[in-house]
Amino acid sequence: MNEHHRSPPHLILPLLLPAALALAGCVASPADGTQVSSTSQTLNFSGFHPNASAPVRVMAYNFSARRYDEVSSGVSTSTRIPASYWDDPLYEWWAPSRSLGSAYWEPGRCTGARALIKGETTVGGRVYGMYSWDLEKNAEGCTNEHRNNADWVTYCSASQSELTTTDYSNDAHAFDISFNAAFSPDATCTSVTFSYNHATGAWTDVRATYQQGGTSRSMSCSETSSSRGRTYGTCRLNLGTLSAMRSFIEWHQTNQGTVAVSARDARCRTSLRASRNYTVASSRYDYGWTRWTTVFPQCVAPPPPPPPSDPHLHEIQCDCVDVSGVAATIRLSGCLETSSSPVTGASLMCGYAALALEANGGIDTACAFRSLSAAGASCTNPGWWAFAP
Description:
By secondary structure, the chain is α+β, with helices and mostly antiparallel strands. 16% of the residues lie in helices and 42% in strands.
């Protein structure tokens, strides 16, 4: 008899009374916590009973019918195990091995399946349940420390045996998406983008939120490509304006942000999600806006638009020839107001123009005067002018 078969009996009476404990037995195999490779694996049924030649029924829970069904049966032996192994009388029992049908396996929410097994016995015309061997508790030597029926039930047993396939899980797999917490701006410098990748077929519906200070903003995530068994994607945080981008960058000089990422586990039969938080450390972006615009030139603000033209400002141009016969272009600008009335004050404006032209020297001032007259304008506030030869 090996160590596994030296387990103590396993009573399932509601009241743990010494007299009642002596009437029931235990299911040692399959023990609570047993793992199997598949739902079709053959199961061995065995255990111990405090009475010789006692009937034992192996019961499995039918998840479809919501009841326990008998799946195998046996009788305890008439030979007591050696007293050196156990303080109380104890007899082994076996029942024919078999696999369980699909009705006795409950699928895990993610993967695999589980089954529930318990034992029943009839003693003195009454039916008693049987406790199960608890693998986890007995792995630490519980049976060696508690060597009688009552103590073993109290410290080393389980109410029944739960069996699971090796891939059984009610939870999503560990979150293993590789997420890059370093962001970069888009082409217009109004959004920042984070990148991620994961094993193809492992995760779907990636979602992310960005938490900055006391605010939280949703991000837009999408897959972009797949290559060599990996799927790649991005999550975009829309900031809206270039000014908001600058505030975002400058805030990160002395503060940290957090990106909360979650995804649906595509390997699970039900919709289960896993998540993880990533810190955007201030040290990663410890340079200011000037440095940022150097690295990302699309973030440089365009020059301001020219001011609207003043309808009272006119430019007069005249092509002239200087005394040397060299062609020159004269532009005169001044506060001139177009008027349909007769030209007045032309001589005053011409006087200013003449001074300017003569200062330049050698340019036909008459040409400039003619251009002033041809403009059909009068000077309402002569006080400044400019020209360029």
